[in-house]
UniProtKB/TrEMBL annotation:
It comes from Aureobasidium pullulans. Its EC number is 2.3.1.257. One of its GO terms (molecular function) is histone H4 acetyltransferase activity. It is found in: Cytoplasm; Nucleus. It holds the Pfam family Acetyltransf_1. PANTHER family: N-ALPHA-ACETYLTRANSFERASE 40. This is N-alpha-acetyltransferase 40.
Length: 377
């Protein structure tokens, strides 16, 4: 707690929270309400931090964020802090902004408005924490909790799948795994993990095989590095479809030029438990089924799995992005109940009256009866 002298000093300042609410909930500094400048190092140290280095880091962070945002506002990055904040009076809700993700919400001018928004902000924070907690769960717990085992096997008697083997009936198994498992990021090299690179390469080649042309034709283009970076995102989860007693037919091996690839993989879906705007969503990043195995119900089954996970984890909706030129996939998604989402990009009007059509769209499907109420600014 600050001393009386420091409190007087604080009155010249307003609280400023750096957007680190997930990690610490404590990254707070003050900015002067008129000048918007951060306080001296000594003031920061005397209020919150004993440690020189920590206080210095905090100030640096605040200064650069202030520059970025050209702000004179009071911002609360960690709304939890409000409960222990020495400035918790009605006037301190004036001109307070909450920074959560990239969303800014203006607090009300009166205490009751401020309090109402504070409660909504706390709810938003708890939704955010939920995402973090789900992503921190070890994959074995996550699977046990949110994916029934019967969904991990796919029973199908389609001729296409059966034709992959003459002997025992082939079995389609679907494993849920993390990006670090797929890419062997946490593993020490060992005999067991030596074959790991085959899996990410196989998934990568499959994406390239099915979607390279769409990327190439789009404004964003195709970039190996960028795609791999996205695939390696630590929160990315994979549902990998494997054929246990069968093999990709020869005709399929054209996309798997490299004989080192894993030929038991016949498709996959990748997704992330995340937030879009104000809502908790399961975001489907990729879905690709190898040519030979399309129209066997595998895509439908993968969607059933991911939507089950979305519902079981309490996500508001399931979302995805699709290139507009991929009319087949767009129709397929529509037939699964996906509709254009409100955040899908709209055509951009140019000065001459011409408009630029976005080359992709964002589709979504609501998973819960009622989403949470949005905070109105
Ligand atoms: C889109 C894709 C994932 C679909 O997977 P799939 O395993 O072939 O699809 P399924 O066999 O599960 O689909 C079966 C259902 O879709 C229906 N369907 C098939 N083609 C369809 C189409 N063009 N439009 C609408 N419905 C279609 C089938 O009639 C069937 O309907 P039902 O569930 O009512 O019986 C697959 O075609 C694919 O990998 N495409 C290439 C990669 C790609 O474009 N991915 C999307 C990137 S955004």
């Amino acid at each position: 707690m600050a001393s009386a002298a420091t409190e007087r000093e604080i009155n010249k300042w307003r609280l400023w929270g750096v957007n680190r609410l997930l990690e610490t909930n404590t990254s707070l500094v003050l900015v002067h309400e008129k000048t918007g400048k951060p306080p001296t190092l000594d003031l920061v140290k005397s209020i919150y931090y004993k440690d020189d280095e920590e206080a210095e880091n905090l100030l640096e962070e605040a200064k650069s964020s202030l520059r970025d945002m050209d702000m004179k506002w009071v911002i609360l990055g960690a709304c939890d802090f409000l409960t222990s904040c020495p400035l918790r009076t009605s006037k301190d809700y004036d001109n307070v902004l909450l920074r959560r993700s990239d969303v800014f919400r203006t607090f009300g001018k009166t205490e009751s408005q401020g309090m109402k928004l504070y409660i909504e902000a706390s709810e938003a924070l708890s939704r955010f924490r939920k995402i973090r907690d789900l992503n921190n769960l070890p994959i074995s717990h996550f699977t046990k909790e949110y994916l029934p085992t019967d969904l991990m096997e796919y029973q199908s008697s389609t001729r296409k799948i059966e034709s992959t083997t003459k002997d025992s009936p082939p079995m389609v198994q679907i494993d849920m795994t993390t990006s670090s498992d797929v890419f062997g990021l946490d593993n020490e090299p060992s005999n067991e993990t030596r074959s790991a690179p085959r899996i990410p390469q196989t998934l990568f080649e499959l994406i390239k095989h099915t979607s390279y042309k769409d990327y190439k034709a789009s404004r964003q283009g195709w970039d190996d590095e960028h795609k791999l970076e996205e695939m390696e995102d630590e929160d990315m989860r994979y549902l990998v479809v494997k054929l246990s007693n069968g093999r990709l037919p020869e005709t399929e091996k054209q996309w798997t030029k490299d004989s080192e690839l894993d030929h038991s993989i016949i498709g996959f879906l990748s997704f992330m438990i995340t937030q879009e705007e104000d809502e908790n969503v399961v975001y489907i990043y990729e879905i690709h089924i190898s040519d030979h195995f399309r129209d066997c119900g595998l895509g439908r089954h993968l969607f059933k799995m991911v939507e089950h996970i979305g519902k079981a984890t309490g996500m508001d909706k399931s979302m995805l992005t699709v290139f507009k030129r991929n009319t087949y996939a767009r129709q397929w998604y529509t037939s699964r109940g996906y509709e254009e989402d409100e955040i899908s990009p709209r055509p951009r009007k140019l000065r001459g009256g011409r408009s630029i059509e976005p080359d992709y769209e964002i589709l979504s499907k609501r998973l819960q009866e009622q989403g949470h109420k949005k905070v109105k600014s």
